[in-house]
Amino acid sequence: MNKAEKMIDALRPRPPINGDNRFFYDELKAGRVSVQGCSSCEELRHPPVPMCPSCHSLDWSPRQMSGEGELISYVVMHHPIVPPFQDGYIVALIELTEGPRLVMNLEGIPEDDIEIGMKVEVTAHAVDDELTLPMASPCA
Hints:
Largest sheet: 5 strands, mixed, barrel
Structural class: mainly beta
Shape: globular
Order of helices and strands: HHEEEEEEEE
Strand order of the largest sheet: 4-5-6-8-7
Number of helices: 2
Number of strands: 8
């Protein structure tokens, strides 16, 4: 097996999943991008945490997002490259229309065409049989 085949066959690193964030990955598997919403003050938050930073409530529920957002910042990863990532993949900070910000890959656009502030669509993307992650792509 050559180096390119090893890169393709390697599984993507697994995020640590716990009681606070399991809903996020379950929602993605169901094709929905959702974040925590405080049941007391309605604040949306990501990453998931046990207590609302605004009102200190422990009550929350998943809130489905529209999937629309804006590119706030990004970095193009060149080195070090570890399997299964390819040289030049894009990691983006996306602000969802509803307010929360998420970090994810940006795909479907050449590096030279990326612009801060561009509108993106965030969807659930199955990277393998067991893992689904959010993925951003430019709006058509």
